[in-house]
Design goal:
It comes from Halorubrum salinarum. By secondary structure, the chain is an alpha+beta fold. The protein has helices at 12-20, 53-57, 89-94, 116-122, 145-158, and strands at 5-9, 23-24, 40-46, 64-69, 72-84, 102-115, 134-135. Helices cover 26% and strands 31% of the residues. Strands 2-3-6-5-4-1-7 form a seven-stranded mixed beta sheet. The N and C termini lie far apart (32 Å).
Length: 160
């Protein structure tokens, strides 16, 4: 059972296009092999310019993803499959100004609305801390992943 948590910055326009709304892959016969047997998928990636190749390599199926923009966490999900997209098919097909070879599918997607400071509190970061794409250190993940997801869902409902 995977216990990794990744904090993932997003570009809202690209995120809406390929994560918030699943991509219909049946229109793309030239899709990469890891997507060949899927009819649809939620796709996201790590920008090649981010320098976080080692973080990407730690992603495993089932890892928790917490997506944020500006000062708000907007969604949760789980890593489906992470793969190298050497031809940059996904970024060339779906995303604007987002060249990348480090792509992953997102499963168990859920929209949330939680301020950065609330999520920072879960992992014992300062309230003003702004992460880049990162894996939360094991010592800071003190709850089950499902409990972290539930906390964000509860926060979202409480403040809706």
């Amino acid at each position: 059972m995977s216990e990794n948590v990744f904090l993932v910055p997003i570009d809202p326009e690209n995120f809406d296009r390929t994560v918030r709304t699943p991509v219909d892959l049946t229109d793309y016969p030239d899709r990469p092999e890891p997507l060949a047997d899927l009819d649809e998928a939620r796709l996201w990636a790590v920008d090649d310019d981010s320098g976080n190749g080692s973080t990407f390599e730690k992603m495993e199926s089932g890892d928790l993803l917490l997506f944020y923009a500006d000062d708000e966490y907007v969604a949760t999900g789980r890593v489906g499959e992470a793969f190298a997209d050497e031809d940059r098919w996904a970024s060339g097909t779906f995303w604007t100004a987002f060249p990348t070879t480090r792509v992953y599918t997102v499963t168990d997607f859920g929209a949330v609305s939680a301020p950065k400071r609330a999520v920072n509190r879960i992992f014992d970061y300062s309230s003003s801390y702004t992460p880049g794409f990162m894996r939360v250190a094991d010592s800071r993940v003190t709850a089950e992943l499902s409990s972290i997801e539930s906390a964000l869902e509860h926060y979202t409902k409480r403040n809706a």
